Amino acid sequence: MLKQPHYRRNQHPNNGFKEKVVWQLSKGPRTGRELSALFHMSLGQFNSLLRGCLRGETAVIAASDPVTVDACTDYTYTLVSTKRVTRSDPETIVLTARSFGLATPGSRERNTLAAQRRARLIDAGLYPVDE
């Protein structure tokens, strides 16, 4: 399960719910029953929480036609799109002049190689990218 960055954590049990759902749906379409089992909640609770996540522009989640299952309505959820900033020159590695100037020569090389490795993993879809 995708863990939230420390600067966005709080004590609410459903903190980052939409982000976690988007992470699961990025792997492929899932039913509400599968997702509710992953989040350890009932299907009714899951549907009520996800109803608020269907609105918005950052990550667009679509729900299929409803299917009644054990007095609850089940949907198949699909991730339609996520907004991402696309650079015109994706080969360039973005660094600030200050951070590059303060780094030692050895750490510059290590950080450049690490950024290239992260870029390859992001392109392959194996590295989680925050929205």
Secondary structure layout plus pairing:
Layout: H1 17-25, E1 30-31, H2 32-38, H3 43-53, E2 59-63, E3 67-69, E4 72-74, E5 76-82, H4 97-102, H5 105-124
Antiparallel strand pairs: 1-5, 2-5, 3-4
Helix pairs in contact: 2-3
Would you give an account of this structure?
It is a single chain. The protein is α+β, with helices and mostly antiparallel strands. 40% of the residues lie in helices and 15% in strands. The chain folds into two domains: 6-82, Arc Repressor Mutant, subunit A (Orthogonal Bundle), CATH 1.10.10; 84-131, no CATH class. The chain has helices at residues 17-25, 32-38, 43-53, 97-102, 105-124, and strands spanning 30-31, 59-63, 67-69, 72-74, 76-82. The chain has a three-stranded antiparallel sheet with strand order 1-5-2. The protein starts with 16 loop residues before the first helix and ends in a 7-residue tail after the last helix.
Q: How many strand segments?
A: 5
SS-based class: alpha+beta
- Tally of separate helices: 5
Tally of separate domains? 2
